[in-house]
């Protein structure tokens, strides 16, 4: 299900020229109920806002409109969202997700790259079904054309500078925690392509290894795209998919990448160089804590282990 994102982006740009301030623009797209609901929300912070109160946030709240919906798995929908032309983010960050008529504010990581935003004016969010009102709205009410507002935040991101220090990435994901890491993987592939096409600026990126754990292969989001990236950059990207409750047989094209059981210490150790490795973790808190301890036991400095815990 999709709509021409370009038309929606054009409309947003037309609004922007008429009213450059973010709040009036949000009212134009979301209607008068939006400002009233925001006033109610400010009196009692929602779960996401409380948990991320100490994190960095942009000041601007931008209007946005859903222009595509894809079913990623039985429990996950991916939204393609046309955004205001001033909207920007770094790979790995999340958004405060405001929905007209829903008091709770959602918190969802981007699963697309900053490059897609630059090329097409859209971002993507992959959202798992839950009874929490924002996620429930996505799965039961949201349609192409639905209007929302978003504000970027988060201290968990990968944004290297040209000619920066050499870095190898270790990406460790549990369940829907793949979202920000997939954004980082896509951003890394964009930078590698830029290296190939540019004789000037170069990003000093070595390898990227992804360890991704889920219940079964059905719940492995973006698996085909991840495998394609490994094929496109065989000297840079590798991945292992770990499944813990697989019942059915594994499809032949996935078999070389799928391992039964949890992510092992041996796999982590094989991809750790204390001088070069930068590790990004996202998943359930117990997994993050266990993997962080294992990595430090292998000599990876604490400041080279970055994590995003989702509840």
Provide keyphrases for this structure.
12 strands; 311 residues; globular; Elongation Factor Tu (Ef-tu), domain 3; 10 helices; alpha/beta; six-stranded parallel beta sheet; Rossmann fold; 33% helix
Order of secondary-structure elements: HHHHEEEEHEHEEHEHEEHEHE
| Structure summary, number of beta strands | 12
Secondary structure class reads alpha/beta
Number of domains: 2
Element layout with pairings:
Elements: H1 5-18, H2 22-30, H3 32-43, H4 47-51, E1 62-71, E2 76-83, E3 94-99, E4 102-109, H5 114-120, E5 122-128, H6 133-140, E6 147-153, E7 167-174, H7 178-197, E8 205-214, H8 223-232, E9 237-243, E10 258-260, H9 265-270, E11 277-283, H10 285-297, E12 305-309
Brief write-up:
With 311 residues, the protein is α/β, with parallel strands linked by helices. The protein is built from ten helices and twelve strands.
Explain this structure to me?
It contains ten helices and twelve strands. The strands form two sheets. It has a six-stranded antiparallel sheet with strand order 4-3-6-1-2-5. The chain has a six-stranded parallel sheet with strand order 10-9-8-7-11-12, sandwiched between helices. The protein has helices at about 5-20, 20-30, 30-45, 45-50, 115-120, 135-140, 180-195, 225-230, 265-270, 285-295, and strands at about 60-70, 75-85, 95-100, 100-110, 120-130, 145-155, 165-175, 205-215, 235-245, 260, 275-285, 305-310. The radius of gyration is 20 Å and the shape is globular. Residues about 10-20 and about 35-45 have low confidence and may be disordered. The chain is α/β, with parallel strands linked by helices. The chain has two domains: about 55-155, Translation factors (Elongation Factor Tu (Ef-tu), domain 3, Beta Barrel), CATH 2.40.30; about 165-310, 3-Layer(aba) Sandwich (Rossmann fold), CATH 3.40.50. α2 (about 20-30) crosses α3 (about 30-45). Keywords: NAD, Oxidoreductase. It comes from Poecilia formosa. This is Oxidoreductase NAD-binding domain-containing protein 1. InterPro entries: FAD-bd_FR_type, FNR_nucleotide-bd, Oxidoreductase_NAD-binding, OxRdtase_FAD/NAD-bd, Riboflavin_synthase-like_b-brl. GO terms for molecular function: oxidoreductase activity.
């Amino acid at each position: 299900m999709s709509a021409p994102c370009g038309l929606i982006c054009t409309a947003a740009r037309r609004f922007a020229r008429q009213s450059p301030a973010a709040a009036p623009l949000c009212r134009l797209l979301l209607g008068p109920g939006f400002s009233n609901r925001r006033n109610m929300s400010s009196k009692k912070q929602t779960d996401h806002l409380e948990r991320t109160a100490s994190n960095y946030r942009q000041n601007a709240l931008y209007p946005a409109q859903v222009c595509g919906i894809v079913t990623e798995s039985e429990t996950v929908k991916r939204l393609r969202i046309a955004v205001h032309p001033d909207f920007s983010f770094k790979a790995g960050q999340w958004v405060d997700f405001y929905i007209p008529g829903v008091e709770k504010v959602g918190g969802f990581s981007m699963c697309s790259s900053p490059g897609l935003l630059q090329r097409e004016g859209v971002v993507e969010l992959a959202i798992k079904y839950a009874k929490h009102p924002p996620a429930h709205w996505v799965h039961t009410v949201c349609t192409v054309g639905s209007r929302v507002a978003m504000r970027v935040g988060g201290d968990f991101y990968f944004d290297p500078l040209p000619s920066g220090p050499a870095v190898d990435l270790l990406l460790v994901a549990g369940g829907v925690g793949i979202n920000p890491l997939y954004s980082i993987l896509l951003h890394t592939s964009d930078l590698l392509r830029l290296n190939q096409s540019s004789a000037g600026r170069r990003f000093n990126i070595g390898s990227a290894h992804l360890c991704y754990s889920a219940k079964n292969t059905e719940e492995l989001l973006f698996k085909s795209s991840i495998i394609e990236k490994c094929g496109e950059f065989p000297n840079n990207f590798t991945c292992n998919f770990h499944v813990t409750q697989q019942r059915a047989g594994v499809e032949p094209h996935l078999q070389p990448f799928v391992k039964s059981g949890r992510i092992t210490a041996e796999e982590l150790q094989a991809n750790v160089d204390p001088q070069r490795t930068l590790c990004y973790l996202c998943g359930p808190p117990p997994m993050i804590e266990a993997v962080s301890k294992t990595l430090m036991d292998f000599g990876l400095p604490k400041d080279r282990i970055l994590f995003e815990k989702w509840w």
